[in-house]
Amino acid sequence: MARLNFILLLIVVACALAVVRANHEARKLFVAMEAEQKRMRALDVEWGQLQLEQSTWAAHVRIEKLAREKLGMHPPVAGQIIAADAAVTR
């Protein structure tokens, strides 16, 4: 009987250690997940800022201003516009 109690005690201790280890691993994974979620939020903020910056750099008014000032371009007058037919026959 004492031998059976000893074996059962070893099994209970092994199970308790397994539970402690599993809880520790779950906490470590939770901390890692929280850190990654924080990083994800920071990247989302940066992405929003980059999209805003891109829309600023690509604004039509800015492009037109640069074309006029740096490239010396100007809008065509009515006589310079030629309409091309989009339908191409083979």
Describe this structure in words.
With 90 residues, the protein is an all-alpha fold. Helix content is 76%, strand content 0%. It contains 2 helices and no strands. The chain is rod-shaped.
List keywords for this structure.
mainly alpha, rod-shaped
Radius of gyration: 35 Å
Percent strand equals under 5%
Query: How many beta-strand runs?
Result: 0
Sheet bearing the most strands, described?
A: none
Uncertain spans, ≥5 residues at pLDDT below 50? none
Q: Treating each run of at least 4 consecutive H or I residues as one helix, how many helices?
A: 2
- The rough form would be described as rod-shaped
Mean pLDDT: 92
Structural class: mainly alpha
In quaternary terms, these chains amount to: single chain
Q: Kindly state the percentage of residues in helix.
A: over 70%
| End-to-end distance | 97 Å
User: What is the string of SSEs from the N terminus onward?
Assistant: HH
Topology:
Blueprint: H1 2-57, H2 60-71
Q: Could you write a compact summary of the structure shown?
A:
The protein has helices at 2-57, 60-71.
